[in-house]
Amino acid sequence: MDDLLLPVEQLPTKSANGAWKASPEDLNPETDSLDLDGKPQGKSALFFGDEEARLRKWDGLVQRVHRLASPSSAEAEQRDAPYGRILVDEENPYGPIVPMSLSTVSLHGDSPALMCAGEGENLERQCPFWQFRERFGAYLVDIDYSRNYDPQRRLIPKDEFLAVVRAIDHHVSEVLKDRAVRSATSASTIRMAGSTAVP
Length: 199
Fold this sequence. Notes:
By secondary structure, the chain is of the alpha+beta class. It is built from two helices and seven strands.
């Protein structure tokens, strides 16, 4: 599942401050749930229903990939938590959750959802916490940015966050397509080998 995490060379450049941290930090989802300051807490980051999960963190960005037991399990989880399960109401220091439109963005996953948690005007230009979730079959992909995780404590605009979302969406889509092609090729080779066997 590590191949579903975005390689650092594919991460878009920050608009205002150059590149994100050059070396991402891969976290163990069984022990490295992040607190609201982006520090590992020593407890599981696996969500109910996860068969497997991976986390990668760059500065204020985190990509999480969850594999559930089936596409229907992933769909049910997405319906229950359309933006992911990172913010819990009593632990949300950012402000109200504000759904954001994705109408102008073309993505490969199913039922993509974007929100900003924050207060004030112009949240599209300066959000303290972005959260995105989409589904690919049995996989859920969560991407979030928190100014609390970022050493520079920046408020990033929606278009900058969506550049990261598009890069991860494209990468996950391509990896899953490649897997499907390899699987189909392997199945075809096995069938052909079986049909040429001499009784």
